[in-house]
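Progress note, project year one: complex with 4'-phosphopantetheine.
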Amino acid sequence: MKSAIYPGSFDPLTFGHMDIIRRSADIFDELIVSVLNNKEKTPLFSVEERVKILKEATRDLPNVKVESFSGLLIEYAKSKNIHVAIRGLRAITDFEYELQIAQTNHKLSGGRLDTMFLTTSLEYAYLSSSSVKEIASFNGDISQCVPDFVIPLIYEKFGIRRE
Ligand code: PNS
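Model obtained:
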């Protein structure tokens, strides 16, 4: 069985992430979407909230599991005996950062963890979790950015009630 991990912050989950999740779930027998528990960042949603949102958003994808992890991705992947990490690339600006992480992970894992990049579908290439947060914080329209059920959860975090 071929499995892969799609690690990320998913704070919040966007249509860009969903695009990568659906396409990788088509390629692999099993996809584990895993939320990084990063104690250095102050996220909008707690890890538990993000896991819950991802589970709801992927309930129609039977080969997708949602988990969280702390520490190094290579250790987490090793504990699951998984050798592929998935990352989405939106533009060349993502590339340098992603290349460095992918190469570090490959080296640190002794060649056991490879990173597979999927290019984000063009319609979502502009999307980022940080821009979604900024737009929502100013009461802007995020309906083209995140799944419907996530929209009110985001506004709620900014204390915004929309009619
Ligand atoms: O959605 P993000 O924030 O761009 O995801 C980044 C993520 C979670 C893939 C990356 O920060 C990560 O894997 N962090 C875990 C720590 C680690 O293994 N770092 C790689 C060595 S530099």
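The CA atoms of residues 24 and 130 lie 23 Å apart.
Helices lie at 15-27, 47-57, 73-80, 92-108, 129-137, 151-157.
No further modelling is planned for this target in the current period.
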